[in-house]
Amino acid sequence: MRTDVLLAILGMALATYLCRAGGYALFRALRPPRFVEVMLQHLPGPIFIAYVAPALATQGARGFVAAAAVVVTQATTRNLAAAIAVGVGAMWLLGLVR
To answer: What domain of life (predicted)?
Structure first.
């Protein structure tokens, strides 16, 4: 076993824990302003878009068409499995069209 690799893993685990624990400790000690609380409540959506948009961009138009099909399916059926199936099916069909 390589000690340097183990120490790097343990160091990163400690750094990750301290970042999370520090945030909890900070919010416990200091109450953030209301606009910060509201902003943090809306943060998951932009983070999701930040991950999804580059992946869609690499697929070009067919990625955006498939994403639109997913959004429409999810909005109309409220069924996540159906939305995923439609997205996968749309990517497959659009891949055949090329």
So the answer is: Bacteria
Task: Give me the percent of the chain exceeding a pLDDT of 70.
Answer: 99
Asked if 62 and 94 count as a contact pair (C-beta separation under 8 A), the reply is: yes
Phi-psi category of 30—alpha, beta or left, where left has phi over 0 and alpha has psi -120 to 50?
beta
- Residue 12 has, within 13 A of its CA and on its CB side, a CA count of 5
**Residues whose CB falls within 8 Å of the CB of residue 62, separated by 6 or more in sequence, listed in order:** 90, 91, 94, 95, 97, 98
DSSP state of 30: S
Helix, strand, coil percentages for the chain (3-state, nearest 5): 90, 0, 10
Cβ-count burial of 92 within 10 angstroms (0-12 exposed, 13-18 middle, 19+ buried)? exposed
Q: Is the pTM of this model over 0.85?
A: no
Specify the 3-state DSSP secondary structure of 92.
helix
Which residues contact residue 80 at a Cβ distance below 8 angstroms, ignoring those fewer than 6 apart? 74
